[in-house]
Write a structure and sequence with these properties.
It is a single chain. By secondary structure, this protein is mainly alpha-helical. It has a domain at 38-68. Helix content is 65%, strand content 0%. The chain has two helices and no strands. The protein has helices spanning 13-28, 40-67. The longest helix has 28 residues, at 40-67. The protein is elongated, with a radius of gyration of 14 Å. The N and C termini lie far apart (42 Å).
Length: 68
């Protein structure tokens, strides 16, 4: 399934981190859960997206420190 996650090539790392943090809060609240939990597929897709975000953040850090 295709979820509407932000495109990491079009948002800043800070914007992506903020969005991800909000998503974690939303899926953690019991009152917002459907049938007691979000689907395993959604959680796996979110984790995969977060891993891509981590790669982007590490690349930015490396380029920052290489510029110093």
């Amino acid at each position: 399934m295709n979820y509407d996650f932000p495109d990491l090539t079009k948002v800043t790392t800070i914007e992506a981190i903020c969005w991800y943090t909000k998503q974690v809060v939303v899926i953690s609240k019991v009152k917002n859960q459907s049938g007691g939990t979000y689907s395993k597929e959604y959680r796996e897709a979110l984790l995969s997206w977060k891993e891509e975000l981590n790669v982007k953040a590490l690349e930015e850090r490396k380029s920052f420190y290489n510029a110093i």
